[in-house]
Amino acid sequence: MKIANEGRDGDGATATADERSSSHGCCKIKEPGDSSEGLDSISSMPDVILQVILSLIPTRFAIRTSVLSRRWRHVWSYIPSLYFHKDRPDANSINETLARYKAPKMMSFRICTSELDNLPNMDSWIKFALSRNVENLSLYLERRSDYNIPEFLYVNSSVKNLCIESIFYSNIIPKCSVSWTSLKNMSLWCCKLSDESIAKILFGCPILESLTLCFCKELKVLDLSKSPRLKTLVIYNDSVNPGPRKIVAPHIHRLRLKNTQLPCDLLVDVSSLTEAKLDISYNSYREKLNADLLHIMVLERLDKCQNVEKLTLGESFLEILSLAELRGVPFPNFKVRALTLETPISHYVIPGIVRVLQNSPELKKLTLKYKRDDGFIPGIYIDENLRSHGLDTDKCWTSEARVFKDICPLRAYSLFLQVVLKTTETLEKMVVMLEPYFIAKGVMKELLEMIPLLTRNINVSIVKTRCRFKIQVKRFTTNAYQQKSKPSLEIKIVFCGDDADMRFKLHDVHIRRRLSRLADSYISPASVNSGIRALIQKGEYLQALHLYTKHDGSSPLWTSVFTFPSLLKACSSLTNLSSGKTIHGSIIVLGWRYDPFIATSLVNMYVKCGFLDYAVQVFDGWSQSGVSARDVTVCNSMIDGYFKFRRFKEGVGCFRRMLVLGVRPDAFSLSIVVSVLCKEGNFRREDGKQIHGYMLRNSLDGDSFLKTALIDMYFKFGLSTDAWRVFVEIEDKSNVVLWNVMIVGFGGSEICESSLELYMLAKSNSVKLVSTSFTGALGACSQSENSAFGRQIHCDVVKMGLDNDPYVSTSLLSMYSKCGMVGEAETVFSCVVDKRLEIWNAMVAAYVENDNGYSALELFGFMRQKSVLPDSFTLSNVISCCSMFGLYDYGKSVHAELFKRPIQSTPAIESALLTLYSKCGCDTDAYLVFKSMEEKDMVAWGSLISGLCKNGKFKEALKVFGDMKDDDDSLKPDSDIMTSVINACAGLEALSFGLQVHGSMIKTGQVLNVFVGSSLIDLYSKCGLPEMALKVFTSMRPENIVAWNSMISCYSRNNLPELSIELFNLMLSQGIFPDSVSITSVLVAISSTASLLKGKSLHGYTLRLGIPSDTHLKNALIDMYVKCGFSKYAENIFKKMQHKSLITWNLMIYGYGSHGDCRTALSLFDELKKAGETPDDVTFLSLISACNHSGFVEEGKNFFEIMKQDYGIEPKMEHYANMVDLLGRAGRLEEAYSFIKAMPTEADSSIWLCLLSASRTHHNVELGILSAEKLLRMEPERGSTYVQLINLYMEAGLKNEAAKLLGEMKERGLQKQPGCSWIEVSDISNVFFSGGSSSPIKAEIFKVLNRLKSNMVTEDKAT
């Protein structure tokens, strides 16, 4: 008789289809006799025993037996199993057996066929099993065939264990979507399986716990990162079937891997591994031993298994480890606590075993099991490899290994025990599993006598217990000064195959012996029920469900009504819908579905499993039954379920329905409704007050829990006064939860002083504060940046002994961080003994908030050294650091790590990645991240748009903004996005689109946002509309410094410096304290007017008020003094600056050059290069201009060439104009003209104007006329060109041409704008135009001029 492996309980309590169809020659069991005494004695036994009896009796015999037939149908309908052996039944026999089978349920179905004639029937047999909701399905195909798994098998909800074995590779290629919702264990042997197929299968198995893949062709990458419940993985492969080549399994706990000579990067990610079994499969007929590759491979496997607690190593694996040890390859250290060695003892494995033992400092248990598989590596191949590397096989082995050569097995085991005793220090238990022939040879006695002689420093006691030997070894070390004890070691010697260790096979045991064993192990239903409830109280939900399915599978009558709520609680905690449905079915059969406790548990179970509709069906059935329909607990569960699914309307409807049914709400009902009203927002204020009124009318205001919920509701509504009133009305304020809500509520309402006052009041009232009290008060200190009070709370925390509480320590660290006290935050961090992930995250965030990004990255590296796995919060902060410092490569490496972890799709991380790539100018990478996001929220869109704007890609930013509106109409852009959109419009000077955006924001009210308003001012400023900018400014809040700065800058940009200065004075008069940006903007205006007195007074004002001077402000001061002609002041500021930007250097070079000090400008350029700065186009423009002012022609030409050749800077039109002016002033007009003709681009008006001026200066009429003609074609409406040409004609004596040109100028109505100059006297600027003056002291000025003129004439005559 053959036994079904699937669904077997105990020693095998299910019979096969072979036994149940003995009439077809499929059974060899000897039928029992017809002893009525035996039948009567067993007919009164419980169902669990009767099931086993019937599983051993053929169907025809059981049905015609009168005593058994009465109960046959009852028992047979629960756990039958059909097993068709591969060598016996043909298709007709199987079909005839299935025709007799009438049971509605099947536990196991296994069919093994070696006949090709059976294949056409396979689909129908599988359908038969699936129609009986089979739980264990096993298919075995031995003959060569191209059988494809049928499509209908891929959609099934009953199969829990699936095994498909094929000798010649059946195709597993699901063309439809796979849905195995109940599958927990899957084994695939010798199947053609592609990466796409396994991915589709895994996607359809949401609760898969164990996966076995053996010799699967075509499989390359096995990615299990999206199967978080998969905990066990078994992989076998060989050289013919090498798949998979890469395994990504971050969630598995148990791994069994036996593979051939594969590349060393097989295990990509097994970070959660706790148990591993490793071996090598070698076939000397198919492949040549590559030991060099293998020893690298096995060390890579061990490196991935450093953190496992249970490790099993096979013989071939240990042989390769020995090779690596002999070659001096370094081994990793392990955290293994239980080590199993499945190998015979020989000198080929000893060096590897010794090294593993030495590198396992925490080892507690060692098991040695004699085992040799077919795929082991023969020793001669090991010797050949050693000789190929020039090693002597007689001398290269270690001293420990050499003694194991050519000795008897008995001696080998005793020597091995001696090696273990010498090598290990922490070992507490050792199990040696020997072959049974040791007993037959009678050598056990000799082995036991040898053990005490292993070493002198041990005490040994041996106890023999029924073919087992228990050896207690007490070890100690001695020296001249002290004796030090070591942990005692317990050694058990057992025998593989011994009856004390192996289960008996069914066909070897008489039926009466089985019945006696079952009767002895019978467990009462009461004990099972109490056991289930006890397990659930301990939180061991999975064990409770296993106990239920083990003992309740035979009959639901086992379970009492009081156990079902506990079972449903276990299903809720595990979100195990399948088991919950099964239990629900049993409840319906037993008629207990209207019990209020069970109905409540069912509703809660379906809600927590994510199936609200099922919960609604349960509730509707209960409410319409009329049985206990007024129980408030069921209604509370249903209302809570609606609210958890954010179906607030239905939840409120259920609350009203409860009132209609006459069910009076209790405090819990009202607290649920109140909590939902808080989430709904301020527009639910009136509903909240109505609930409060209902409480008062129905005398429910005495419940402290409900009062606490009310206080929280009022705080969430922003009604802190009402919350205070409720708090004052409470007489008993001893509950700390009440104080916590008040402290946190005032802190969340930004009334931090009241929050801290309540904290002190709670202390004075002797309220026993808990961790939440301290975290709430510390949160208030963080918001108000009250470090002094925070230190006081810190003292209280230390006194209460809560300084190691994870929540309190995190709040302390965050408080110091918000107050800018990073040193204190580091102290808190270092004092925490048990550093959980939250405290690491808080410290990283503290560094980031205080612009100490490099310390954050250093801490992140240290965190990884400590094997602390980061979460999305950690990585988002790290990526933000990379964005802060432009560390693109480091950020990209962090991004690469995310592909190995399931947290890569976190919105916070993706938004941080978007910001990183955008800031680094990697728009392509930013787009890839953005497109890969499953849910694009407002932050993601905003990050992408902002990044494009920062990189100057304004058109792309506006396109993305349009795509956002097209992609999801429900997304309402926030102020950050609108600010970026307006900045894009300003960058493009797209006024029309900017006006549209402005209009839409007026409708939404976002225009009142300070950043939006400032961006609008900047837009109108760049578009030359200061009047529109002023309208936006006047509509904003007057106390905001950002708006004032934007408007001051607007006037400066639009050549209205007087208004800019006037607005700054107005800002000061209104009590707005300026910042560095304000001062910088006003200095720009002052520089344009060259108002030295205003500039100096503003400089003094900045120093007196202690306004922080950043680089921009100092640059503005240098620029102001340079343009006002005071280069000495600018030089003093320059020399005192510690951090000089390139702009600073450029300003000083320009200043020296414009004041004719070209030598100093050139020397400053040399200093710039020594300082490590790289000059830009502005630097060379300033240098050429300096040479122009001083007449250094050759130096200017040299700088022009250096700019192009040494620095690769393409000259701009300004550079060409300065070069023409340089050559023109030096009188080298022909060279200047040749320079213009050699320009790669067409010269603009500034070039020809310089040549025209030089031609007039040096009286070159021909070039002057040529330049003037070019200018007139480019700018025919420019009057100054006509004037220049007329003057040229007059100076050359061509009066007729001058008169003709003057007439043409008058006909066109062109005039030359008069030049002007101004001088500042007593803080008043006096402007003088060419040909006249508008100064109010014009007469006095000319009187002084005439006097000076007469004095000069007199002195001239005197000389």
UniProtKB/TrEMBL annotation:
Record-annotated F-box domain positions: 42-78
Domain of life where this protein originates: Eukaryota
Cell membrane in keyword set: no
Biased composition (Basic and acidic residues): 1-33
PPR repeats: 595-629, 631-665, 836-870, 937-971, 1040-1074, 1141-1175, 1278-1312
InterPro entries the UniProt entry points to: E_motif (IPR046848), F-box-like_dom_sf (IPR036047), F-box_AtFBL13-like (IPR053781), F-box_dom (IPR001810), LRR_At1g61320_AtMIF1 (IPR055357), LRR_dom_sf (IPR032675), PPR_At4g14850-like_plant (IPR046960), PPR_rpt (IPR002885)
Keyword Cell inner membrane annotated: no
Annotated keywords: Repeat
An example Gene Ontology molecular-function term: RNA binding
Biological-process GO terms, alphabetical: RNA modification
Start and end residues of each stretch annotated as Disordered: 1-40
The protein, known as: F-box domain-containing protein
Species per Swiss-Prot/TrEMBL record: Arabidopsis lyrata subsp. lyrata (Lyre-leaved rock-cress)
